[in-house]
Design a protein that fits this description.
There is one protein chain. It is built from 12 helices and 23 strands. The strands form 6 sheets. Strands 8-7-9-10-6-11-12-13-14 form a 9-stranded mixed sheet, with helices on both faces. A 4-stranded mixed sheet has the order 15-16-18-17. Strands 2-1-3 form a 3-stranded antiparallel sheet, with no helix packed on it. Helix 9 (361-373) packs across helix 12 (437-444). Strand 17 (315-318), helix 8 (322-336) and strand 18 (343-349) form a beta-alpha-beta unit. The chain starts with 5 loop residues before the first strand and ends with a helix. The protein is α/β, with parallel strands linked by helices. Bound molecules: thymidine-5'-diphosphate and magnesium ion (MG). Residues 95-96, 118, 164 line the site of magnesium ion.
Length: 446
């Protein structure tokens, strides 16, 4: 009998090699290769028939609400039948809590199966009591063997399956340990086949490794339809559910939650929440409007500029890109003659939010300038705009939406790029267009 073929696979990124390697050529990780059995080729199935586009019927109501609006939004408007959703995040961030809470709403479809490889039914029951969940249609299965899970699923035919977490599930057909990339990929694939065949939506929970990627990330992210990341700071009650990939809706959508004693509470007006503890008339603080997915969000940007006691000044950025902050500091230095060379600079986005769009540039600059000059920016002012290397303020997208959101929350003066300021319709708020950073700073601080 020929020897079963084995492969060596990087446990960090999934790269495979016919021989053991000390360092992964793909992700650079050391000592990450383990031996895995090569996956047996899948049997050829009946070949598919080509169909003309108009002849395909798609039923409109193949989406179901989870009863949690913020979760529905990140899914693109609810759970799609037969879809596979990967929910990733740090251990302890609230993934199990969120899925358990969503099951209550999903029982209107019928029986739902919650497979837990991490917690005992008693532990889940205690959590459910805290969350006030008691539906008889939620079936708990403490099981880690893939084969048993599929057998039981076939028997009770649930309308939705949750796997908590994929790292604990293993297939008896593979020799490698639970949690290895080979196991994760194979189990996820088999579960996905089940989901597609039966039209059962599948939620797969996956823990994030220290490096910030879901273990076996590349393989899983390719297989599933939707990838959601649950983010947040352990010390902060706010949690953000972010859509990273979605075959059934827009990406970059976010859902905002607050972790309470009795589980996750939806935050339907995040702008208000992120600004709720804002200190008024304090130097180094300014409000900007960021767009996350389809929603405008008002956030406070803070900066602290202090004389450095070390030779090399410190630059720290939380929630915004540090390279971007360094670039903006250079522009301030050159354009406004601010001597920031010997200063420590700290920039922070309040509430644990991460902002990736350049619209935040102007606010970062304003906060740094305000702290540097020790001069507060008026409480009713907000600002946004992309800053170019020569100090010009560039137009950004969806200015109208941002301005309206700021107006809704009582902000009276917006300092925005000139080309975003032209379109003023019956508003009682003042919108001032600035051509460049010099102008903007002058208006912000008289
Ligand atoms: P959990 O959902 O177990 O996280 P994950 O599945 O992502 O590992 O969340 C656990 C944390 O949430 C734990 O630190 C306690 C906290 N928590 C609350 O604050 N309130 C609650 O009602 C629940 C159920 C958990
Ligand atoms: Mg959990």
């Amino acid at each position: 009998m020929p020897r079963a073929k084995t492969l060596f696979q990087c446990q960090s990124c999934g790269h495979t090699s016919p021989k053991w390697l000390g360092k992964c050529p793909d992700c650079g990780e050391w000592n990450s290769y383990t031996e895995e059995q090569q996956v047996t080729k899948l049997k050829r199935q009946k070949s598919a028939e080509p169909v003309a586009l108009p002849d395909i019927t798609a039923s409109k109501d193949s989406r179901f609400s989870t009863g949690i609006t913020e979760l529905d939004r990140t899914l693109g408007g609810g759970v799609v039948l037969g879809s596979v959703v990967l929910i990733g995040g740090d251990p302890g961030i609230g993934k199990s809590t969120l899925t358990l809470q969503s099951l209550e709403g999903l029982t209107k479809l019928g029986k739902v199966l919650y497979v837990s490889g991490e917690e005992s039914p008693e532990q889940i029951k205690m959590r459910a009591e805290r969350l006030n969940i008691a539906s008889a249609d939620i079936i708990i299965l403490p099981e880690t063997s893939l084969e048993s899970i599929i057998t039981i699923a076939q028997k009770i035919n649930p309308r939705l399956i949750v796997i908590d977490s994929i790292q604990t599930i293993f297939s008896l057909e593979l020799p490698s340990a639970p949690g290895s990339v080979g196991q994760i990929r194979d189990c996820a694939t088999k579960l996905m086949f089940y989901a597609k065949k039966h039209g059962t939506p599948l939620f797969i929970i996956g823990h994030v490794t220290k490096e910030g990627a879901i273990a076996g990330p590349k393989v899983l992210e390719h297989i599933v339809d939707t990838v959601l990341y649950f983010e947040g700071d352990k010390g902060n009650p706010f949690r953000i559910l972010r859509t990273v990939k979605n075959r059934f809706g827009s990406t970059n959508e976010i859902g905002v939650f607050e972790m309470m004693e009795s589980g996750l509470k939806e935050v339907s007006n995040p702008s208000q929440l992120f600004l709720s503890e804002r200190p008024l008339n304090v130097p180094g603080s300014v409000v900007t409007v960021s767009i996350e997915g389809t929603r405008p969000l008002l956030v406070e940007i803070q900066a602290l500029v202090t004389a450095s006691s070390f030779g090399v000044p410190r630059r720290t950025a939380i929630g915004v890109d540090l390279n971007r902050v360094n670039l903006l500091v250079a522009v301030l230095d050159k354009r406004l003659g601010m001597q920031l060379g010997g200063m420590d600079i700290y920039v922070n986005v309040v509430g644990g939010l991460k902002i990736n769009e350049p619209a935040v540039d102007m606010a970062v600059m304003a906060a740094i300038t305000s702290s540097f000059r020790n001069q507060a920016i008026e409480a009713g002012i907000y600002t946004f705009g992309e800053v170019g290397l020569s100090g010009e303020l560039r137009a950004i997208s969806q200015a109208e939406v941002r301005i309206n959101e700021a107006a809704k929350l009582g902000f009276t003066r917006g300092i925005v790029p000139v080309s975003n300021s032209s379109n003023k319709e019956n508003r009682d708020i003042e919108i001032i267009g600035a051509k460049n950073v010099e102008d903007a700073v002058q208006i912000l601080m008289f």
